[in-house]
Amino acid sequence: MAEHTVFSDDAWIVSLVEYIAKVLTASKTPVVGICFGHQIIGRALGAKTGVAPGGWEIAVDNVQLNAQGQELFGQPSLNLHQMHRDEVATVPQGVACLGSSPKCPVQVLYKPGSLLSLQAHPEFDDFIMNEILHTRHNAGVFNDEMFNDGMARRANSHDGVLVATKIWDFFLDAVANPRG
């Protein structure tokens, strides 16, 4: 269970969505979003967000990249840590979806010089995932089957460093070639 969801109408969520929409449409500031940030960006741009029909996506999982995603990341797929049950379900107009997974159709949103967002957590590692899995299992969020599945994949190799590098490249390119 998540404490906050991007599709709620809590005042602070609505305010954040409005702010991000303004940044993306009225400024030249490049924006990167991870997980909740990815979902906020999606909602701010008019995408449908909600609870994923496929349920939780946890631990290291594979994201298949389309041709544009392969060009950006330099490989056919990414193995990344996941920790979400909510999703961006549709692609906003004027933005490209670069990758998907069986449980989440919109894993990466991209608009050159403007935005790059990922549903996955490139910043997570085995230690962080181990702690989250134990905490959510102990709280009853994850049953034994989900917990064991996540624990079996938490230490798998992942592409977090590659994605971090591409995020830096995105910012450096946005600064060198500001959108007009």
Gist of the model:
The chain has a single domain, classed as Class I glutamine amidotransferase (GATase) domain (Rossmann fold, 3-Layer(aba) Sandwich). The protein is about 40% helix and about 25% strand.
List the helices and strands and how they pair.
Elements (H helix, E strand, L loop, with lengths): L10 H16 L4 E4 L1 H9 L4 E3 L5 E9 L1 H7 L3 E8 L1 E3 L7 E6 L2 E8 L3 E4 L7 H13 L5 H10 L6 H17 L4
Parallel strand pairs: 1-8
Antiparallel strand pairs: 2-5, 3-4, 3-6, 6-7, 7-8
Helix pairs in contact: 1-2, 4-5
Description:
- The protein has about 180 residues and is of the alpha+beta class.
- The protein has a single domain, classed as Class I glutamine amidotransferase (GATase) domain (Rossmann fold, 3-Layer(aba) Sandwich), CATH 3.40.50.880.
- The protein is built from six helices and eight strands.
- The strands form two sheets. The protein has a six-stranded mixed beta sheet, sandwiched between helices. Strands 2-5 form a two-stranded antiparallel sheet.
- Helix 1 packs across helix 2 (about 35-45) and helix 4 (about 125-140) packs antiparallel against helix 5.
- The relative contact order is 0.18.
CATH top level label: Alpha Beta
Total number of helices: 6
Radius of gyration, in Å, reads 16 Å
Q: Can you give the helix content as a percent range?
A: 40-55%
Architecture, CATH level 2?
3-Layer(aba) Sandwich
> Average pLDDT value?
95
- Compute the number of strand runs: 8
Strand order of the largest sheet: 1-8-7-6-3-4
Beta-strand portion reads: 25-35%
CATH topology: Rossmann fold
Tally of distinct domains: 1
Order of helices and strands: HEHEEHEEEEEHHH
